[in-house]
């Protein structure tokens, strides 16, 4: 009889693999100067929908793979990234947006992937040139995270 999968163990294994792979890749030097994250404007003209953002975070966005979130109906939450409960009190929407769009701008060593970049490295052919989330899905997740006070 097969034992059930421990998603926490899978998450830790993935994080360790990403960390090991990122150390093996050549790192580009950090940008000089200050990046004003507050200037990270919305990606769409349409306001984000927090209800859809919650669905994206729990599903397609895979946020629960690495983060604990106030989504109790989902069984497995990761602990590689920070707990996102209260993140809307700590970060403003432009900061949340940047962390989803390209977190490596803020921390080049983060294992968190970019969810809205088309020039990702080492992806399957069918995913080349595509983003993980659409612009509207990013805005929806930002709106949801902003409600977590």
Walkthrough of the structure:
The chain is mainly alpha-helical and about 150 residues long. It contains five helices and no strands. It has a domain at about 45-145: Cytochrome Bc1 Complex, Chain D, domain 2. It has helices at about 5-25, 50-60, 85-90, 95-100, 135-145. α2 (about 50-60) packs across α5 and α4 crosses α5 (about 135-145). The radius of gyration is 16 Å and the shape is globular.
Share of residues in helices: 25-40%
Under the CATH scheme, which architecture of the domain at 47-147 would be assigned? Orthogonal Bundle
Number of strands: 0
Mean pLDDT: 83
Name the helix and strand elements from N-terminus to C-terminus, one letter apiece: HHHHH
Q: Report the major sheet.
A: none
Radius of gyration: 16 Å
Enumerate the spans where pLDDT stays under 50 for 5 or more consecutive residues: 24-34
Give the count of helical stretches: 5
Shape: globular
CATH class of the domain at 47-147: Mainly Alpha
CATH superfamily of the domain at 47-147: Cytochrome c-like domain
Strand content: under 5%
Which fold name corresponds to the CATH topology of the domain at 47-147? Cytochrome Bc1 Complex, Chain D, domain 2
Distance between the termini: 44 Å
Structural class determined from secondary elements: mainly alpha
């Amino acid at each position: 009889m097969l034992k059930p999968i421990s998603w926490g163990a899978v998450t830790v294994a993935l994080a360790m693999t990403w960390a090991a792979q990122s150390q093996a890749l050549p790192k580009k030097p950090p940008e000089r100067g200050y990046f004003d994250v507050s200037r990270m404007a919305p990606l769409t003209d349409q306001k984000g929908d927090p209800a859809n953002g919650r669905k994206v975070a729990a599903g397609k966005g895979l946020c629960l793979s690495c983060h604990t979130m106030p989504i109790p109906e989902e069984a497995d939450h990761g602990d590689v990234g920070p707990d996102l409960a209260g993140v809307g009190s700590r970060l403003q929407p432009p900061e949340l947006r940047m962390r989803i769009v390209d977190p490596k701008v803020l921390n080049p060593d983060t294992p968190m992937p970019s969810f809205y970049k088309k020039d990702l490295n080492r992806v399957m052919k069918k995913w080349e040139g595509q983003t993980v989330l659409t612009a509207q899905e990013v805005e929806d997740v930002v709106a949801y995270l902003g409600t977590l006070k």
